[in-house]
């Protein structure tokens, strides 16, 4: 019984930590670069990659934004960008 409980706890903790790593994060800061061709926005020296459905042409350097992203394969895959309040 004790082995079953310990095994269950180990599996549960691994599953929880994997889910936590995939959770979305946000960053707030001023845009330092926008590249419409590569679908990227740079904030605080970090590059965020957007899917092609985003219209980044309205994002301007110096604008303060909030970017929602997930870290995937060492890249910041952005899912949302909006003006910071």
Report on this model:
This protein is α+β, with helices and mostly antiparallel strands and 85 residues long. The chain has a single domain, classed as Copper binding periplasmic protein CusF (OB fold (Dihydrolipoamide Acetyltransferase, E2P)), CATH 2.40.50. Helices cover 24% and strands 44% of the residues. The chain contains one helix and five strands; from the N terminus they run H-E-E-E-E-E. Strands 1-2-3-5-4 form a five-stranded mixed beta barrel. The longest helix is centred in the first third of the chain and has 20 residues. The N terminus is likely disordered.
Quick summary:
This protein has 85 residues and is α+β, with helices and mostly antiparallel strands. The chain is built from 1 helix and 5 strands, in the order αβββββ. It has a 5-stranded mixed beta barrel.
Q: DSSP helix count?
A: 1
Mean pLDDT: 83
Low-confidence stretches: 1-10
Spell out the helices and strands N to C. Answer: HEEEEE
Highest-level CATH class: Mainly Beta
User: In one word, what is the shape?
Assistant: globular
Rg measurement, Å: 18 Å
CATH H-tier superfamily: Copper binding periplasmic protein CusF
For the biggest sheet, the summary is: 5 strands, mixed, barrel
């Amino acid at each position: 019984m004790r082995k079953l409980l310990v095994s269950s706890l180990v599996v549960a903790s691994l599953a929880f930590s994997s889910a936590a790593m995939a959770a979305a994060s946000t960053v707030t800061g001023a845009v330092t670069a926008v590249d419409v061709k590569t679908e990227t926005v740079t904030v605080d020296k970090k590059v965020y990659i957007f899917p092609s459905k985003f219209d980044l042409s309205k994002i301007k350097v110096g604008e303060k934004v909030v970017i929602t992203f997930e870290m995937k394969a060492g890249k910041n895959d952005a899912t949302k960008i909006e003006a910071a309040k």
